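Lab notebook, bench 4. Still working through the backlog of constructs that have no structural model yet. Next entry is a single chain of 221 residues. Request: give me the structure tokens for it.
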Amino acid sequence: MAISESGPTSTQVARNIERVRKARQLKQKDVSDRLRAVGRPMLPTVVSKVERGERRIDVDDLVSFALALNVSPLALLLPPHGASDPYIPLTDTVETTLANAWSWAMGRRALPAAPGEKASPDKQEAYELLSHSQEQRYVKRKPAGRAVDVLHDEVYRLVGISEVSSDRLDEGFEEHLNEVRTWLDRLSAEVDQTAKEHAKLSRETRQWKVEQQRSSDAGDE
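Model written out:
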């Protein structure tokens, strides 16, 4: 009997643990042994209860299961890519598309207010401020980082529609293909520019070291 107060994410985690375990061709005892090895002992009977939704797991359990099953914690929190239902509940009152959920969880995009919408620039900025490391934010502000970010999304969309053919989708495929090529060219140009800037910095650093050495030698005379 499933725990009555469990929300949709708890239910999804239970399903994913069972799905991944079977995909790994592991028995519940195997998972129990692996959990013990990562410092979270759990009997096979308890693993069974988790999979049936009869035992709630906390965040420490979640990380331990992810370690034991050799997957990202996100692979246990969300439905897998390609799941049949394009809309998923995150809480009892928040629902979004599968693509939006993964993008949000992976730190790429703030969750929009409603499916089909985009988060406002202010919300996206606030999301990135505390979702990304300082290094990530720095890279994303650079032209090359921006190009990578956009290219990722465009390639994702391109691959998503590449396996379906219709007049409307074929036109969309060509548009995305051209967009990907444009951003590839832009990324290439930005990478070349980054290389030039680095080469210039290296020359200036070497020159500075030479001048410092000359000053030091002059002071010793």
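Notes after review: The longest helix spans residues 167-220. The mean pLDDT is 87. Flag for follow-up if needed.
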